[in-house]
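Quick review question:
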């Protein structure tokens, strides 16, 4: 509980820091609503009693107070909601970047493949508004509780019997809860059918699936299945909602009986001189709002408790990020050039949630200035090896050294500032074309000359010529821009990779998988030339991952991976000469396939 209180206190501090006037107004509004509710009841009693005693001035003054209190109540109801939304936006505007900052501060990527992390991330990030809402839900629950206490005090002063109204007011809440639970159970029971009908509806209304459906003539069948699934959902949920409505009606009937009975008792007492007409009016006024106030207390409390899942996800994510950041100990700056090279020493790694080794006891030395190609079948560990080099993952066993220094001891941000990479699972950055390329070297984001050079090296000049605003064209349909083909997006990613001038590590991980063979050949020729220049200037190591063996024959060193193990290494000539060798077999199969 102490953690929750600390979080709520921190959120209220954020609210006060970002919107002090609105925060103060919200607290003031809560206090005024309590006073206004009591003011209406007491002033109405004063109106009736003063009228009965013929004191017209007092009656008029009390009526004016009642009118003002009522006006304040009506006005503050909408004001409360407006302030609530404003403070929620202000607080969430600081909390969400904080959560994103924690995620961005984790140097690796393995957590993004852990289901427990992704579940917590979704709970904290996608429901951050619930976290921001929780302290104000608690404030309003306290406000409703104080208002309820004041109402009971007023009713008890008229007649202790009126306190039994609290029990009658709680009955509809219980029946209402039962009804809502029945609806929730029905929604859970029909969740699969609901997802099915929604999926079928989306299939019939999306452009990508629409082509297949029209060619197959499956439209009517799709509509029939979607309607059947929806009918199943609607039938079960209709029955649950009808039961909920009946349950709610029964609860209100009980409250109405108790309400009429207790007020009849107050009226009887007033008629026999044990109260005034004003007491009757005040009891009617207070009792009529009692059930709503009880519901507010319970509802606000439930809403506060309902945020527990999101808050626990927030606490878990914060602790995880802190622990991951604390164990990031690399402080040694990256070298300005490579003299010895990069070495893998008995490196093993398995992805979170699996016992299968993606890399199994890999040892190899890559001399500085080397162009090294990594080949193997899908799932052999090629991309995993590259991601270990980029410090996206940490080896489970063994180590990677850069000029003799353990890669784990290098400052991660500094090391990555010396890397250029084009990955097979490249990002589609929906920015302007120029920014999508320039982000490859952030200090030169607006350097149009360097961006233009990168575009030429990626053979993407023709793409720019076809764009309506050239390099200033917004990309991505979701932002009202131009969409690109898969191959065009990949050229943008490749241009982004060559933005950095003198990297120590240049990675090409299937950078042309979406391109045709002639385009791939031209790009690799250009990039091999660039790799040789980098080798001379910085001793850079260039790593090429490709499934087309024709693109790797010119590499200085070829590494052959099979099921996570390094089974062969050498030049193309050396590996081709191995009778029955893995590389020779794969190369022969592919050469035969291309020749037929």
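Suggested answer, residue by residue:
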């Amino acid at each position: 509980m102490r953690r929750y209180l600390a979080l709520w206190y921190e959120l209220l501090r954020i609210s006060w820091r970002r919107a002090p006037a609105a925060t103060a107004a919200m607290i003031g509004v809560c206090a005024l609503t309590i006073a206004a509710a009591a003011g209406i009841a007491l002033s109405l009693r004063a109106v009736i009693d003063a009228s009965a005693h013929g004191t017209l001035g007092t009656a008029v003054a009390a009526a004016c107070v009642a009118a003002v209190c009522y006006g304040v109540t009506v006005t503050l109801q909408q004001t409360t909601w407006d302030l609530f939304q404003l403070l929620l936006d202000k607080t969430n505007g600081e909390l969400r970047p904080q959560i994103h900052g924690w995620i961005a501060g984790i140097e690796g990527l393995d957590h993004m493949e852990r289901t427990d992390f992704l579940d917590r991330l979704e709970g904290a990030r996608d429901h951050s508004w619930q976290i921001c809402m929780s302290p104000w839900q608690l404030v309003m629950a306290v406000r409703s509780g104080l208002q309820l206490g004041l109402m009971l005090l007023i009713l008890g002063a008229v007649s202790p019997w009126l306190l039994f109204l609290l029990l009658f007011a709680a009955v509809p809440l219980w029946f209402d809860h039962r009804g809502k639970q029945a609806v929730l159970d029905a929604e859970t029971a029909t969740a699969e059918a609901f997802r099915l009908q929604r999926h079928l509806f989306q299939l019939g209304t999306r452009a990508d699936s629409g082509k297949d459906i029209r060619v197959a003539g499956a439209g009517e069948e799709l509509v029939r299945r979607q309607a059947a699934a929806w009918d199943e959902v609607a039938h079960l949920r209709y029955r649950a909602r009808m039961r909920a409505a009946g349950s709610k009606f029964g609860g209100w009937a009980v409250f109405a009986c108790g309400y009429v009975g207790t007020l009849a008792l107050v009226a009887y007492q007033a008629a026999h001189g044990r109260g005034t007409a004003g007491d009757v009016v005040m009891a009617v006024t207070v009792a009529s709002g009692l059930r709503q106030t009880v519901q507010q207390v319970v509802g606000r409390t439930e809403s506060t408790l309902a945020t527990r899942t999101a808050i626990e996800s927030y606490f878990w994510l914060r602790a995880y990020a802190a622990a991951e950041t604390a164990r990031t100990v690399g402080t040694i700056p990256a070298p300005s050039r490579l003299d010895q090279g990069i070495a893998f020493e008995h490196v093993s790694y398995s992805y979170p949630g699996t016992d299968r080794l993606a890399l199994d006891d890999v040892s190899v030395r890559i001399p500085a200035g080397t162009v090294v190609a990594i080949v193997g079948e899908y799932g052999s560990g090629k991309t995993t090896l590259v991601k270990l080099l980029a410090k996206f993952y940490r080896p489970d066993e063994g180590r990677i050294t850069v000029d003799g220094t353990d890669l784990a001891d290098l400052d991660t941000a500094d090391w990555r500032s010396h890397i250029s990479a084009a990955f097979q699972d490249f990002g589609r950055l929906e920015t302007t074309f120029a920014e999508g390329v320039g982000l490859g070297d952030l200090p030169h984001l607006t350097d149009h000359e360097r961006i233009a050079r990168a575009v030429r090296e990626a053979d993407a000049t023709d793409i720019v010529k076809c764009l309506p605003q050239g390099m200033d064209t917004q990309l991505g349909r979701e932002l009202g821009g131009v969409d690109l083909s898969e191959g065009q997006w990949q050229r943008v990613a490749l241009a982004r990779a060559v933005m950095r001038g003198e990297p120590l590590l240049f990675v090409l991980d299937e950078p042309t998988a979406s391109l045709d063979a002639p385009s791939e050949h031209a790009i690799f020729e250009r990039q091999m030339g660039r790799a040789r220049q980098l080798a001379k200037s910085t001793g850079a190591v260039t790593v090429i991952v490709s499934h087309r063996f024709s693109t790797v024959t010119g590499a200085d060193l070829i590494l052959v991976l099979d099921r996570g193990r390094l089974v062969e290494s050498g030049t193309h000539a050396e590996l081709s000469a191995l009778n029955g060798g893995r590389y020779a077999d794969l190369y022969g199969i592919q050469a035969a396939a291309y020749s037929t």
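Why it works: The beta strands are 341-350, 357-367, 371-375, 397-402, 405-406, 419-422, 505-509, 541-545, 557-562, 565-570. The chain has a mean pLDDT of 81.
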